[in-house]
Amino acid sequence: MGISGALDGIRIIDLSRVLSGPFCTQILADHGASVLKVEPPSGDETRTWGPPFNGGTASYYRGVNRNKFGVSLDLSTECGKERLLTLLKDADVLVENFKTGSMDRWGLGYARLSHEFPRLIYCNISGFGADGPLGGLPGYDAAVQAMSGIMSINGEAGGPPTRVGIPIIDLVTGFNSAIGILLALQDRSRSGLGQLVNVSLFDSALSILHPHAANYFASGANPSRTGNAHPNIAPYDVFPTLTVPIFLAVGNDRQFRTLCDVLSDSELASDPRFGGNKARSINREELKERLIALMSTHRGEELSVRLMKAGVPASGVLGVSAALQHAHTSHSEMIVDLEEYRGIASPIKLRRTSPTYRMPPPKFREHQAKVESLDISDEK
């Protein structure tokens, strides 16, 4: 069956494991790229990262490996290396996140591959890059959160630094890798040449320090933890109500006046202490006390809907299950149901070339026979 997608015809050899690389290649696979996931003889370690498990494979693995063919090669052996070189003859992209120097040690480094396959785009994902003070050292999401300053700004005011509850650095590194590959494909369409795409967890972590890095560059002050509050905007925080807490994200004066109208407090809107965002930020504690008193008589579920309809960003604080069961999640078609597989759909929606969900995550070595016969041109 043919593939309908923006990347139809692009062939990717995915040597990566765990999260950043597989997340990157799933993004590309959802939009039509043919991705061959090559695992070591022991398999991707995330196959065992459970519970929960489905059919003996951890949900962690299944969450980032759909739309891929699955095989195993031992790249430390001559047979494995020769098989990979054969596969690369028809490949457009190679993605790997081995420890720095591994590919060179196996005789499969960028210098050799770019010479043999000048159109190949080689994406290397690492913790810190290949050189510099930390070059070649391993990087893991939580450790890089700590090193990059992200943990220092996450957590309650006066409380300890806290890891972000999702592997945010791995995920943004996956996004950056996908962007880098697409940029290199665009350049190749003009130059006819592939190139090396280097993406590191450390660089990716620094890249999302907004607005804290910008604030530091402007003020010289080290950012502090503010809990759910925004360092630059007020009111932008979680507020208790008669029932469930809701989050207010009031980004401008119009929204603030609308909030006051919904809460039926005209005096709050005209109070000079809250007359603009600068004033509201300076007097945020007094503002928060006033809003908590006003909202204490409202049911959070109803109030958040009224605010949203009036143009004020607001929401009840939902759990994961409630978010996945939300009516808008269904409307946006953000859940994939495919055979025995269920997962989060692609958030990238193109009008003419929509993402497609063609294969569940592969079982270990599921498509080995196809690769042995070099028959991986069509989806099953």
From TrEMBL:
Signal sequence extent: none
* Stretch list, region Disordered: 353-380
List the InterPro entries hit by this protein, alphabetically.
CoA-transferase_III_domain (IPR050483), CoA-Trfase_fam_III (IPR003673), CoA-Trfase_III_dom3_sf (IPR044855), CoA-Trfase_III_dom_1_sf (IPR023606)
Q: Which UniProt keywords apply?
A: Transferase
- Write out the transmembrane intervals: none
Q: Where is the composition biased (Basic and acidic residues)?
A: 363-380
Q: Which Pfam family name is an example for this entry?
A: CoA_transf_3
Q: Which SUPFAM superfamilies match?
A: CoA-transferase family III (CaiB/BaiF)
State one molecular function term (GO): CoA-transferase activity
Do you know which PANTHER family this protein is assigned to?
A: SUCCINATE--HYDROXYMETHYLGLUTARATE COA-TRANSFERASE
Could you tell me what this protein is called?
A: Crotonobetainyl-CoA:carnitine CoA-transferase CaiB-like acyl-CoA transferase
Q: Which organism is it from?
A: Bradyrhizobium macuxiense
From the broadest rank down, the organism's phylogenetic lineage runs: Bacteria, Pseudomonadati, Pseudomonadota, Alphaproteobacteria, Hyphomicrobiales
